[in-house]
């Protein structure tokens, strides 16, 4: 682990990242606590693969001063064995690539009214990359874990970033998910993993909110429950290990204090929200879509056939997207878009719709997109403060204190100026 030098080094970090990633821009962090950069433009959402240079970055602590030569990943809670060097991870196990749409659980937070604290993301904290590395399954099988284990155990993963306070970055995911498709990634889009994305090795949890994909992984621990105070009691180092799992990244109304749970009945975030989980955890991503083109930055003119192609991306965590609709009249009428391009579970799909503005139309319109997942759940239209969470009304996303997991479509509309063709 490296030295924690606090806020100044964080701003230095942000400047470095912005220089290396020309396709990103700094995001506004109310409390000045995070290192955050977002996608610079909507154009990111017109293509399937997000270049490393455009992929957002988000973390709370300083990047550790890591060296792949000496980095070790401990595997605990299973058969004893040596910690893994990067060389062992690369050479002794299979290598796989997974597609993952990384979305910060705080994406769209800036759309909450009243404003919540923390990073005021608009739609900019999401991107899709190919991540290659070692399947968790191969490592755990090697350590004697029954890979067909269908018990309710968990994998608790420890980040090696230096806490700015006492809270070590630790996240728990169900062992079943870890064995199914999670990887310890050391490459992003075929390139060595950049430091800000977790060099030398990070967890990738396909289709789940970014918070679960722990960067700079130091330890994998097989546990009977999600991390609790007891899990790391033997460390006795004055640090706490439960904040990032249970204190942050929970969906709840103002002033609620979510407690430490050992497990949840479902890891589907939306199911928790409309079911009887009091303070849902942000695990798999809610259904979402974004238009990438037109991007609203410049006027559009219909082509020779009188058409304007509308393109974007839609995702639904580890569920499938079943439908995307586009409206060119501010939600009065909706048209089915075509889904096309790469189709991986855990990553977004591209969509397109050929819009024909009225001949000679000269004016401004708002373009909207809304997606539906395979469970028939459609994005709500807006975020609202609810008096009673017992019944989350249809078409409304509940305002929540942390501003998490919002997926309303109206705030993401694109205003586009249309100018007629010169005939
Ligand atoms: N160790 C560690 N891992 C972390 C974080 C962190 O603060 N520390 N931030 C998480 C959050 S909130 C997000 S959204 C993703 C972002 O991954 P990226 O920066 O590669 O896009 O990393 C996650 N992994
Ligand atoms: Mo995040």
UniProtKB/TrEMBL annotation:
Pfam families: Mo-co_dimer, Oxidored_molyb. Signal peptide: none annotated. The keyword Signal does not apply. InterPro entries: Ig_E-set, MoCF_OxRdtse_dimer, Mopterin_OxRdtase_euk, OxRdtase_Mopterin-bd_dom, OxRdtase_Mopterin-bd_sf. It comes from the Archaea. GO terms for biological process: sulfur compound metabolic process. The keyword Oxidoreductase applies. Residues 1-32 are annotated as: Disordered. Its cofactor is Mo-molybdopterin. GO terms for molecular function: heme binding; molybdenum ion binding; molybdopterin cofactor binding; sulfite oxidase activity. Keywords: Metal-binding, Molybdenum, Oxidoreductase. Residues 283-382 form the Moybdenum cofactor oxidoreductase dimerisation domain. Residues 62-226 form the Oxidoreductase molybdopterin-binding domain. Gene3D superfamilies: 2.60.40.650, Oxidoreductase, molybdopterin-binding domain. This is Mo-co oxidoreductase dimerisation domain-containing protein. It comes from Haladaptatus paucihalophilus DX253.
């Amino acid at each position: 682990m490296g030295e924690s030098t606090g806020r100044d080094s964080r701003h230095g970090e942000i400047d470095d990242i912005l220089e290396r990633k020309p396709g990103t821009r700094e995001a506004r962090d109310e409390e000045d606590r995070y290192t955050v950069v977002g996608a610079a433009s909507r154009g990111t959402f017109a293509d399937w693969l997000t270049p490393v240079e455009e992929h957002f970055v988000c973390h709370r602590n300083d990047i550790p001063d890591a060296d792949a030569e000496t980095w070790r990943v401990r595997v605990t809670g299973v058969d004893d064995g040596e910690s893994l060097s990067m060389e062992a991870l690369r050479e002794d196990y299979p290598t796989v690539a997974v597609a993952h749409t990384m979305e910060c659980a705080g994406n769209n937070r800036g759309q909450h009214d009243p404003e919540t604290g923390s990073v005021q993301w608009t739609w900019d904290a999401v991107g899709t990359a190919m991540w290659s590395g070692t399947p968790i399954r191969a490592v755990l099988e090697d350590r004697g874990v029954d890979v067909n284990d269908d018990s309710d155990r968990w994998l608790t993963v420890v980040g090696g970033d230096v806490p700015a306070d006492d809270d070590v970055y630790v996240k728990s995911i169900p062992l079943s998910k870890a064995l199914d498709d999670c990887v310890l990634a050391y490459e992003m889009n075929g390139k060595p993993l950049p430091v800000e994305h977790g060099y030398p090795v990070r967890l990738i949890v396909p289709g789940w909110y970014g918070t679960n994909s722990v960067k700079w992984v130091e330890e994998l621990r097989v546990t009977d429950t999600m991390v609790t105070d007891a899990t790391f009691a033997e460390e006795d180092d004055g640090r706490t290990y439960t904040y990032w799992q249970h204190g942050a990244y929970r969906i709840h109304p103002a002033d609620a204090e979510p407690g430490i749970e050992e497990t949840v009945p479902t890891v589907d975030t939306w199911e928790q929200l409309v079911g009887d989980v009091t303070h849902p955890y942000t695990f798999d991503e809610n259904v979402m879509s974004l238009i990438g083109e037109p991007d609203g930055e410049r006027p559009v003119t219909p082509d020779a056939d009188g058409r304007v192609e509308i393109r974007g991306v839609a995702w639904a965590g580890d569920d499938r997207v079943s439908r995307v609709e586009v409206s060119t009249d501010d939600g009065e009428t909706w048209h089915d878009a075509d889904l096309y391009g790469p189709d991986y579970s855990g990553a977004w799909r591209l969509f397109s719709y050929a819009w024909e503005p009225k001949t000679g139309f000269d004016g401004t319109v708002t373009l909207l997109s809304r997606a539906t997942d395979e469970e028939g759940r459609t994005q709500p239209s807006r975020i609202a403060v609810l008096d009673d969470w017992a019944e989350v009304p249809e078409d409304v996303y509940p305002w929540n204190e942390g501003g998490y997991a919002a997926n309303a479509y109206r705030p993401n509309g694109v205003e586009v100026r249309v100018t007629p063709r010169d005939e």
